[in-house]
């Protein structure tokens, strides 16, 4: 008796206002078991079977009875395909059975979408089909929503996707071999492609340019070290006599020492601001850690360069302290008269120098003089651990000082590695002045005022 209800689709209302829908798979006097169960319209986890006790059931309604299979026929008729414009169902061809020669009087099988005993449902479905065909091409909100969101809930994915295993199935080497084999074109196609006009990028010139000459500066009897710029231009070194002769002609041309010292001071200021951090450090909102620069000046023209650089740094708001070894040089005295108007400190004792500074500018020694050791200053500099920037130092380096950067005027001498990284300053010397001393010159500076130099490997 209980087996008669197996397969029924039922809706069961329970005591706790819970409604279950599903297909009966088991019936006993004590409980009913349903599969593919929905609880209040929500599918149960993984569609597990649900057993409901008889005393918990308030109401039970049959939604659908199990369909009975129709009578099988040995003769299968071929349905005529229906055209798109026809609204009628495909009809069976009776003469197909006659051609076969069968005299069986059983009804052929008609394939229908759904078999039901309720005529009203069929009529409603037919009317809905005709309505949809009449409204073909028009937007029907309910029908579109049903097509998009009417699919049943799928089971949750219980197993993670293995990306590594799936990636291992892809033979990348075979794909690359196939692509490379496709690129091997016949000789005829290669010759045809070679005749095509060249296509230029947005940064290429259509007009052919002259090959770049990297050795634009040539000096007589070049037997010294060479340097190279970021653009690959070769900068030869001068010897002491040629450099002295060049600056003598520069003086005669009207570029006095006062002009050259201003240019060197500007170059030192530019490099110093970069070493201090630039705009991030020299910011009004960063006044609590304003940089301090100590300038060590000797009684020579290099010392005058240092005082000039200190004045220009002070004009940018940098705190500067000038240490002056002696005031016997006339060029230093002229620069001091301007520096004193900045109200920045001037000291002559090593003990008055600060323990901590952000940068040290070294302008103590000249190339031609006997270099003084300055033992106290060198020990203070090494304790301070701030980077040292030298202004036109001796080519062999300043004794007892660890120089990290050096600025050179015009053209460099053959400098030792103890002078650190070299920068070349543009003094604005005319080309005719270089020609007078036998130097073939073309400016390597380009858009910059100071350029870095690197030792040339060759």
TrEMBL record:
InterPro entries: DFDF, FDF_dom, Lsm14-like_N, YjeF_N_dom, YjeF_N_dom_sf. It comes from Henosepilachna vigintioctopunctata. It holds the Pfam family FDF. Residues 73-146 are annotated as: Disordered. Residues 116-128 have a biased composition (Polar residues). Signal peptide: none annotated. Residues 239-435 form the YjeF N-terminal domain. Residues 96-107 have a biased composition (Low complexity). Belongs to the EDC3 family. One of its GO terms (cellular component) is P-body. GO terms for molecular function: mRNA binding. It is found in: Cytoplasm, P-body. This is Enhancer of mRNA-decapping protein 3. Residues 149-185 form the DFDF domain. The keyword Chaperone does not apply. GO terms for biological process: deadenylation-independent decapping of nuclear-transcribed mRNA; P-body assembly. Keywords: Cytoplasm.
């Amino acid at each position: 008796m209980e087996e008669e209800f197996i397969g029924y689709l039922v809706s069961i209302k329970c005591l706790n206002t819970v409604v279950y829908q599903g297909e009966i798979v088991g019936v006993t006097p004590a409980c009913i078991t349903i599969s593919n169960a929905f609880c209040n319209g929500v599918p149960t986890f993984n569609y597990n079977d649900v057993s409901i006790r008889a005393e918990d059931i308030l109401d039970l309604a049959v939604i659908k009875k199990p369909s009975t299979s129709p009578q099988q026929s040995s003769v299968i008729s071929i349905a005529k395909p229906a055209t798109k414009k026809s609204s009628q169902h495909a009809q069976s061809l009776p003469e197909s059975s006659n051609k076969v020669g069968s005299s069986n009087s059983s009804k052929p099988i008609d394939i229908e979408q759904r078999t039901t005993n309720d005529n009203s449902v069929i009529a409603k479905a037919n009317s809905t089909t005709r309505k949809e065909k009449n409204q073909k091409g028009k937007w029907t909100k309910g029908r579109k929503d049903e097509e998009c969101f009417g699919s049943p809930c799928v089971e949750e994915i219980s197993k993670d996707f293995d990306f590594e295993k799936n990636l291992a199935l892809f033979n990348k080497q075979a794909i690359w071999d196939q692509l490379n084999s496709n690129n091997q074109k016949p000789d005829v196609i290669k010759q045809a492609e070679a005749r095509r006009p060249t296509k230029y990028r947005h940064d290429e010139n259509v007009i052919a340019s002259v090959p770049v000459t990297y050795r634009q500066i040539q000096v007589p009897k070049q037997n010294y070290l060479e340097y190279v710029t970021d653009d690959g231009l070769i900068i030869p070194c001068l010897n002491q006599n040629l450099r002295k002769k060049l600056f003598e002609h520069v003086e005669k041309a009207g570029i006095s020492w006062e002009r050259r010292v201003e240019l060197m001071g500007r170059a030192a200021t530019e490099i110093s601001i970069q070493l201090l951090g630039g705009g991030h450090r020299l910011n009004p909102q960063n006044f609590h850690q304003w940089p301090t620069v100590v300038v060590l000046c000797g009684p020579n023209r290099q010392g005058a360069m240092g005082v000039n650089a200190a004045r220009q740094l002070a004009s940018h708001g940098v705190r500067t302290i000038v240490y002056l070894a002696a005031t016997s040089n006339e060029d230093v005295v002229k620069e001091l008269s301007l520096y004193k108007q900045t109200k920045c400190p001037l000291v002559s004792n090593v003990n008055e120098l600060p323990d901590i500074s952000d940068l040290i500018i070294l302008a103590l020694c000249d190339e031609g003089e006997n270099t003084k050791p300055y033992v106290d200053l060198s020990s203070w500099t090494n304790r301070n651990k701030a980077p040292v920037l030298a202004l036109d130092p001796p080519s062999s380096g300043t004794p007892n000082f660890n120089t990290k950067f050096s600025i050179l005027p015009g053209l460099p001498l053959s400098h030792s590695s103890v002078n650190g990284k070299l920068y070349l300053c543009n003094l604005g010397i005319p080309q005719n002045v270089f020609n007078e001393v036998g130097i073939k010159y073309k400016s390597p500076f380009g858009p910059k005022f100071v350029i870095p130099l690197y030792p040339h490997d060759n």
